[in-house]
């Protein structure tokens, strides 16, 4: 049964209930759309009315209970690639921020330890993630610490603003290629949002970029990348022609892409892995050792990466908006399926207004 949303009022101080996508346990696919109280911001926090939320691979891993997500709480509202507007503040937060359009710094550290103070909060031992460690944004409202919001340009449409978090991931990944990229041959594997955005950042740095796409399955992502002017190829075997590959960004989470990168890189080349894998990949370690390949993992982002991402999206808004396929929160199961099947580039969920009076079912079970 579809949940009817009564949006006659949008006053968060009157509204008491909202809809949220909840992972109800650690069991595979144990998710549901539920009616919950609208949260109140505590000291140092803000209440954000959600405009849009993107789905990503991490959400799919979490929904399916893949290896590496055992640390998640037993029950949590999902969603971290969000954009919204601050509508209420908790104690010790300047109310002048009410009305600001913001995106959350979804991954952040304690901001007090040596790692955080060195400028790498994404590596903090106490780091957490909105929508995975604690209740997230796949709801009509969510709360967040006020120092974890990034104010965005009002001209940035919500569907595009939801790309800021994955764009920051891509900017951080390309930043691991510290050497001058001008004229370098850089390959990116994985034509999802992070892969395509990584291509744009690498190209902006002067690299000659190619995007490796799978031969099987929907070609929507490859076609969109080519529309942006990105050269695409099928599989790493298509790299035989041309100069040696100087650097590779692995954004697919596919074992074949990882091993293909090790095979294809020139000696002394660099492999940056930004994807998370459902299971550990196998590859030729001896080839990596004998070729003196540099292997880097890259995780999350810094506030500077958010600034870089914001600048790109403001400038490319019209060209990047077709990346997004929009779904309502009551149709989130279709958004999840489309993300899993790679039939869309980026599924973005629009929660809509909260409601005090709920009609129809009080819980839509989306369990598969």
Automatic annotation (TrEMBL):
Protein family per UniProt: Belongs to the zinc-containing alcohol dehydrogenase family.
Domain Alcohol dehydrogenase-like C-terminal: 193-313
Highest taxon above the source species: Bacteria
Entries under SUPFAM superfamilies matching the protein: GroES-like, NAD(P)-binding Rossmann-fold domains
Lineage of producing organism: Bacteria, Bacillati, Actinomycetota, Actinomycetes, Micrococcales
PANTHER family membership: L-THREONINE 3-DEHYDROGENASE
PROSITE patterns associated with the record: ADH_ZINC (PS00059)
Pfam families according to UniProt: ADH_N, ADH_zinc_N
Gene Ontology MF terms: oxidoreductase activity; zinc ion binding
Cofactor section: Zn(2+)
Magnesium found in the keyword field: no
Protein name, as recorded: Alcohol dehydrogenase
Keywords of this entry: Metal-binding, Oxidoreductase, Zinc
Organism annotation: Cryobacterium suzukii
Domain Alcohol dehydrogenase-like N-terminal: 42-152
């Amino acid at each position: 049964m579809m949940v009817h949303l009564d949006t006659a009022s949008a006053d968060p101080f009157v509204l008491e209930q909202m809809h949220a996508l909840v992972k109800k346990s650690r069991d595979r696919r144990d998710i549901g759309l539920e009616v919950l109280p609208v949260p109140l911001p505590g000291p140092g926090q803000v209440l954000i009315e959600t405009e849009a939320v993107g789905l990503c691979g991490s959400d799919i891993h979490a929904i399916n209970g893949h290896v590496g997500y055992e640390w998640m709480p037993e029950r949590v509202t999902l969603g971290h690639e969000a954009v919204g507007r601050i509508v209420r503040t908790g104690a010790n937060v300047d109310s002048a921020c009410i009305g600001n359009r913001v995106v959350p710094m979804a991954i952040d550290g304690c901001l007090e330890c040596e790692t955080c103070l060195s400028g790498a909060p994404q590596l903090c031992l106490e780091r957490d993630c909105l929508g995975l460690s604690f209740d997230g944004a796949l709801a009509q409202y969510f709360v967040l610490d006020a120092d974890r919001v990034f104010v965005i340009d009002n001209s940035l449409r919500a569907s595009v603003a939801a790309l800021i978090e994955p764009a920051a991931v891509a900017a951080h990944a390309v930043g691991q290629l510290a050497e001058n990229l001008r004229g370098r041959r850089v390959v990116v594997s994985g034509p999802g949002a992070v892969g395509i955005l990584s291509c744009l950042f690498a190209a902006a740095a002067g690299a000659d970029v190619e995007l490796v796409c799978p031969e099987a399955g929907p070609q929507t992502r490859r076609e969109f990348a080519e529309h942006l002017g990105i050269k695409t190829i099928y599989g790493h075997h298509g790299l035989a022609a041309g100069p040696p590959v100087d650097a590779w960004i692995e954004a697919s989470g596919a074992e074949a892409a990882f091993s293909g990168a090790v095979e294809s890189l020139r000696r002394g080349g660099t492999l940056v892995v930004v994807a998370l894998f459902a299971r550990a990949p196998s590859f030729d370690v001896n080839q990596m050792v004998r070729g003196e390949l540099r292997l880097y993992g890259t995780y999350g982002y810094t506030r500077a990466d958010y600034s870089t991402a914001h600048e790109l999206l403001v400038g490319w808004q019209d060209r990047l908006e077709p990346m997004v396929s929009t779904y309502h929160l009551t149709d989130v199961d279709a958004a999840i399926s489309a993300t899993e099947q790679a039939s869309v580039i980026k599924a973005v969920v629009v929660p809509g207004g909260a409601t005090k009076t709920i009609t129809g079912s009080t819980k839509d079970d989306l369990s598969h």
